[in-house]
Amino acid sequence: MRVSGRWFVFSILVGIAVGIGAIVFYLLGQMVVRYSLGEFAGYMPPVAGGERAFFGEPDTPFRPWMIVLVMTVGGLVSGVIVYWLAPEADGAGGNTVIDAFHNRRGVIRPRVPVIKTIASAITLGTGGSGGQEGPIALVGAGMGSWLGTTLGLSHRDRRILLAAGMGAGVGAIFRAPLAGAIFAGEILYSDADLEADVIVPAATSSIVAYSVFTQILPQGTRFTPLFGRELHHTFSSPIELFPYAFLAVLLILAGILYVVTFERFGVWFRQLPIIPHLRPAIGAALAGLLGMAMLYSFGGDVRALAVLGTGYGTLQQTLMESAAVGVPLLLSIALVKIVTTSLTIGSGGSGGVFGPSMIIGGCLGAAVGLAFHEIWPSVVAEPESFAVVGMAGFFAGVARAPISTIIMVRALTGDFGLLVPTMLVTSLTFVACSRWKLYRRQVPTRMDSRAHRGDFIVDVLEGLKVRDVYEQGRKIILIPEGMTLDAIIHCLAENNQHYFPVVDAQERMVGIFTDDDVRSYLFDDSIWSLAVASDVMKSKFVSVSPDDDLNTALKRFTSMNLDELPVISPDEPGRLMGMLRRKETITAYNQKLMEHKQAAAEG
């Protein structure tokens, strides 16, 4: 993509919109927590070191079983809102964005960001196990898509704004603009590929969104990492890599368990013989019951409730002093968090998968660190460092995003001393988890994406001109701009032409329409004699000249998903010389490719 001034402006607009959206999402989530869990259950989940509560503490005494009721009601309200108004806003949100990029020309309905904001705030605020990245990614992507549609941009450009919005949302809510930009380009693919065109727009949008979002935070914490500034670990000896490699093995097994459980619960909920509106309530109730089981199993220790909500408070203590949490509780949180997240999101609840992945990876890493500290204290002196590495390694494997995850965890913790072990663990989990991924809509590489259909054959077409390919003697029916719709319909019925150029009195082309454009009028014969060709045609059309090469032609085919392009005379503007068909271009490509293969074989 050629970076220009207009993209700078577009990216700033997306960043401002997403930054404001992140503020609304953040405050709404806190408000729901305060006036649902806080008011009725007397429970305010502890937050990360860099977060602050905006709505105060409740006076209600702690009533654990009310948490289950609040979660059930929250799941019901969220489910009704989502499945009534925007069913595509259910679940994690990341899959919806990835699918829109690859398969829907970057289109997300304008109502989706609004519905996702409300539903996610309710799901997470009432105790549903999930993260913030999925919802805010969909909210940001929806804003980028809406702006691209409003500005009349091409499908390709709208996809870029969609991805920029996604990156801006993640960069703002986690205060990690660089990670948000890389995440936007990396999360679209499951193999080691990157959507390079979105990086610069996403970086600009992330910086702006981050700057806007941090204005609501207290002055002293605006640029504080989510988990504070106190995390400073070091990597001192290559021998430490052996315990880290063992951690990677456990993270791989846990990642496979997470993906399989997540998918199985999703299938199970979709097969329930009830309306989908009720499924999130069932998932939330079951997750709440598991939370109560954890609470009472550990003698009322509220840290066990990290299996509900975001769990950031318990993770904060794990990162600071994992020995105070203990191996049994850490392992239990990691395993049960897999189930509660699968219940919450698999049932259609609105939340992300990155937050739970941090809890699972962090707690599992801390447990491994504590175990090695007991048996090998001379090598593993800081068990908490394993929690930091575990956070990155776990999500990198199941989300197929190693680079952005390393940057993200570094930004969240402010801890930059563990780069080498983090790279080792994320590389191992990324390679080993290739068959298991949380984002089912990811495609392996750009070559597998419909967004790049045709991008990888243009080099073969260099040197071929449009004049060498299009059928110059083919008879094309021209439609006068004053021809009535009645006559057009009869004309369509008598031939197999698909694209119809519209010409003025001097036979200069002024527009074009397809038989699909006319079909919408077939059931209203009252306007057949009133409407004319100029009412049906598209006056802004894409064309080529005989001197254009097929690289240019193919880009215009793919940018608008067209099957034919008008060939216009460069010397007489508006004079139609013929129509270039996509299949003719592909035929020329195949022929040229065979020539290259034969030349290579002979050489």
From TrEMBL:
One GO cellular component term: chloride channel complex
Annotated transmembrane regions: 7-28, 65-86, 160-184, 241-260, 281-299, 319-339, 351-373, 385-409, 416-438
PANTHER family registered for this protein in UniProt: CHLORIDE CHANNEL PROTEIN CLC-E
Membrane topology: Multi-pass membrane protein
Primary location group: membrane
Domain called CBS: residue spans: 472-530, 537-595
Keywords attached to this entry: CBS domain, Chloride, Chloride channel, Ion channel, Ion transport, Membrane, Transmembrane, Transmembrane helix, Transport
Top-level taxon of the source organism: Bacteria
GO molecular function, one term: chloride channel activity
Cell location: Membrane
Keyword Flavoprotein set for record: no
Protein name: Chloride channel protein
